[in-house]
Amino acid sequence: MSVAPVKFHPRQSVEQVEEGIDLAPKFDDRGLITVVTTDADTGELLMQGYMNAEALSLTINTGEAHYYSRSREVLWHKGATSGFVQTVRELLVDDDQDCVWLRVEVAGGASCHVGYRSCFYRRVPVGSAFEQQHTDGHIDLEWTDTEKVFDPQAVYGDVPNPTIL
Amino acid sequence: MSVAPVKFHPRQSVEQVEEGIDLAPKFDDRGLITVVTTDADTGELLMQGYMNAEALSLTINTGEAHYYSRSREVLWHKGATSGFVQTVRELLVDDDQDCVWLRVEVAGGASCHVGYRSCFYRRVPVGSAFEQQHTDGHIDLEWTDTEKVFDPQAVYGDVPNPTIL
User: Fold this and answer.
1) What is the DSSP secondary-structure string of B79-133?
2) pLDDT beneath 50, residues of chain A
């Protein structure tokens, strides 16, 4: 696949960044931009990750989601190991261009290394539900999805778990 | 409103964090956790922000979204200035508990300080659309929402713009 380079504009003014047509992303002091990835059909939040400039450029070029793995410190073509490639149907930037929203279709239907469809499979009781549940201020999470789409051991084998305590 | 303190669990093991019922959020070296806020009805991504421990605790207690403003360096009750309060219908955490997902209802229907309904009102052409548009590698953003819900000048007046170049 030929990969034409994407050129980002320098950030010159608030008006340019917020109300213009220039793509002028703000990478933080680690060189990263925040990424929010939702299911293009259901709107479900699948994962939240990061891109460096190379990952953003490759995503725009190829139409497949690329991230930067902070735990492994490498460019990360999502699905390269698991097969769960994310095809980008729409990519949007926010007002100050320090966040990217990917609306994707997921091959195989899974996005979470733990095995669930989404990384967000537990709910925190809020407001009156919190009042009803809490006794000493500690909270019990509520499961919203208990069925794993795949077996992480079978898919990832000995690949180290990315979660950092 | 009485505000009972929320107690977070210490992070002790990957299994506890990923597969347990303990709320054990990971705040980064700035004391912040990433927040993704979507419209509870439409699934639209409204904004991406941050919380410190106090903001997360207040959100859980009150059922209204509180953030930490990095530009203003203050606790931020969303809507305190604009009136666009976000009522949290559901709050979820991700696998490694370093991200919070808020599904909200927004009073007044606006979440973006620029005046749009969502902060994500511009699209980046991806894949074949990028190939068709780009000539020198620069990208023209495409507007997805051109109608402002409110007039930022009327709502915020002289409050400084939060966008940092």
Assistant:
1) TTTTS--EEEEEEEE-TTSSEEEEEEEEGGG---TTSSSSS--EEE--THHHHHH
2) 1
